[in-house]
Amino acid sequence: MATLTVVNEVQENESLHPLPWRRMVWVTWRQHRAALVGVAAFLGVLAIYVWLAGLHLHQVYGAAIACHPVGSAACRGLVNSFNGTGGFISNGLALQVVPVLVGAFVGAPMLAREMENGTFRYAWTQGFGRWRWAFAKVVGLAGVVTAASAAIGVLFTWYYQPYYAAVNDRMSLTDLSLFAPGLFDLREVTLAAWTLVAFAIGALAGMLIRRVVPAIIATLAAYAGLAFAAGGYLREHYVAPIVTTRLDVFAPAWILSREWTKAGRSVSQSFLSQVLQGGGANLAGKGGVPQAIASWRYLVQHGYTQWTTYQPTNRFWPFQVIEGSWLLVLSVLLMTVTVWLVRRRLD
Amino acid sequence: MNVIETIDLEKRYGDTWALRECTLSIPSGHVVALVGPNGAGKTTLLNLAVGLAAPSAGQVTVLSGLSPGSPAALDGVAFVAQDVPLYKNLSALDMLHLTRNLNRRVDTVYAEARLVELGVPLKRKAGRLSGGQQAQLALTLALARHPRLLLLDEPMAMLDPVARHDFMATVMTAVADEGMSVVLSSHVLAELERVADYLVLISRGCVQVAQDVDELLANHRVMSGPSTHVDLFDDTSVVHGRRGETQSHLLVRTGATFQAPPGWVAHPVGLEELVLAYMRESGQTAQLAPVGKRDGATPEVAKWPR
Questions:
Q1: Closest partner residue to A4 among B75, B102, B177, by Cβ?
Q2: What CATH number was assigned to the domain covering residues B2-213?
Q3: Which of B52, B94, B145 sits opposite A121 (nearest CB)?
Q4: Which of A11, A73, B127, B229 yields a CA-CA distance of 20 to 30 A from A159?
């Protein structure tokens, strides 16, 4: 018969030293390894795909850039070849799945599963203490998913590099704005920050809703809402945009709007089209000047003024830092509330 | 030393009372049966004692004044919740390793030996163990922590008779070896009657009885006598009565000097009968006698129904 070995009576009092944090490493890994391995496997496959696609893209791009003489049939073929490369990840929307996945499958179930299965009644009555248990899990998992997403963000950045070069526009190569929605948030800083906030939203939703599937749905909804709000409305206001009458403002800068005026009055696009039809041959691109610029010059010569509202390229990193910062603050807030909810006793 | 002590403890969920004006002290060194009808507040009391819930009013302490949920209390109190929540996808060994990481001291040698002895497959996922094995696993994890107080909420609800017997044998062995205090809740007293030496009866959120079982049995008698003479008994001493046409049977609280009145016969009372009598009279229990004091204080007494 197994018997309990007699323990030396430990003098117990309120000033017990807390158990070391490292104990939670194994606990967190063992309980969440399925989700972590699943996410890691997905990210691994994605990384290999993006890496292979990126090698090809960079190679095609290099060939198109190096081609002489520009405009020859062979070079046009190479340009078209680059412009046709990219597939489903070319606009970045498909890669938005990274934070979504982490929020839904790592963040949301973390506490919701404990609540749904009743296992919180085991976990919260062990010697480690409930708020420290929650804190260790939240911080540990947040660190892991943030680091992983930052790493894959580096890969994404490398992949999209050819699209951001300033020469693309002149050479009729596809160019993308550094600020394009769906691309701006895939960079090292922003992807990590968005992944962190998705995880934090998931964790809080799980604690509030206490059921896995509804928590996942709520996480997706809240994350999508936040991402659309940030990309569609918030981001362009981080720093007041520049308004200029220059005509040479193109991607990778972020063009927010172009408007035409004449004698201080706004002119509609359809009216401008009529004006341009009168321009005839002047509008064909000459000497490699893109057609749009030729048209704009024609309009300017006829007394029209173009007002371009934009965020210049050199604001890219400040914008990354601004977005990363407020997302970090928001994440810390959400995670603090989550741990506080665990600490507060259930009713 | 009191393992659980409450003063005017109240717990309200919305506008429903789960516990109200609950004053109780359970001395250490007992196997306590916490009984009462479903919904009486047993689980609420245990959740409060283990820090999973917070009181709406009043206070509760464990192990001589520790606040439930405090580090020292978590260290000394082990709890097996109702329906034995285990991580279904973890094996018994994983659960043991988990418990070891989450606690100051866990006797893994004991736990493994006991699980092997009970035939619990160590590598099988907890979700695939039988109900009895799951209960034994949860109990073993709790015992391996060497708690000074073990709280078990309806531990045997899911078990068949053999598993119940094995479960209680484990508890009693641990009590004998360790001298730990145990509180077991159940709405079926029969499960606990053989092992418990202290009874706490809760109904409708109030403590009705809290006393050493031997004292309780020594201080109650079933009186049988003519129905025409039931008024020989003081209203306040009659817990419950069954009055027949000619014969009546009364459960009476008796003192040390009690003598049966002429024409009446006193029988000893069984614990189950006594508990049932108190449960039936729960509605009339207004005033609690001081409970838990070891001075032979009387439990509260219900009125003889007229």
A1: B177
A2: 3.40.50.300
A3: B52
A4: A73
